[in-house]
Design a protein that fits this description.
Length: 173
């Protein structure tokens, strides 16, 4: 499951600003922004801020926009650069981004950053989430009692085996 951007996109970039895992990208000559289905954690923030209703979760897309599931995915197959292995630091930055967002929405998440072959690079579980490693004290933030937190799992998949996802979005056209 992933959120998908359709041809209604006007390239204003609002969704890029709110995406907690930086998985919305485009290229200078592209007609719209695209969501990486391997990285999207389905947090809904992009859909909320889109001024033209260009975004929906894949299973809610109107029939005429179903081809954009593949259009979004293929954009990343073509354009995701193999820029070398993801460092442990980068992987934990991605974990912390997901955790920080979870704290904002009063949730607890287990996060795994894996390479394109599914091998884990970094895994972590917040207090109140199931399994995994505990978040380190240096990255812990004040949280509500675990019993009040909805449990959510998410995985961030990064590129081809041994390659990294983009760390920042390319500029819009
Ligand atoms: S649903 Fe959340 S994670 Fe997925 S693209 Fe939108 S803002 Fe990013
Ligand atoms: S918020 Fe909507 S219109 Fe703006 S860039 Fe994102 S998908 Fe396109």
């Amino acid at each position: 499951m992933s959120y998908v951007i359709t041809e209604l996109c006007t390239l204003d970039g609002s969704c890029v600003e709110v995406c907690p895992v930086a998985c919305i990208h485009t290229q200078p000559d592209a007609p719209q922004y695209y969501i990486d289905p391997d990285v999207c954690i389905e947090c809904e923030q992009c859909e909320i801020v889109c001024p033209v209703n260009a975004i929906a979760v894949d299973w809610k897309l109107p029939e005429q926009y179903l081809p954009w599931i593949e259009i979004n995915a293929s954009f990343f197959r073509k354009n995701k650069a193999a820029v070398g292995p993801v460092s442990l630091d980068t992987a934990f930055q991605m974990v912390r981004a997901a955790q920080d967002y979870a704290v904002e929405i009063n949730a607890a998440v287990s996060v795994a950053v894996v390479d394109g072959a599914g091998a884990p690079i970094a895994v972590a579980a917040m207090d109140g989430a199931n399994g995994g490693l505990q978040r380190s004290p240096s990255t812990r933030r004040t949280q509500p009692p675990a019993s009040s937190l909805p449990l959510t799992r998410c995985a961030l998949r990064v590129g081809a085996p041994g390659s990294a996802a983009w760390s920042s979005p390319p500029a819009a056209a």
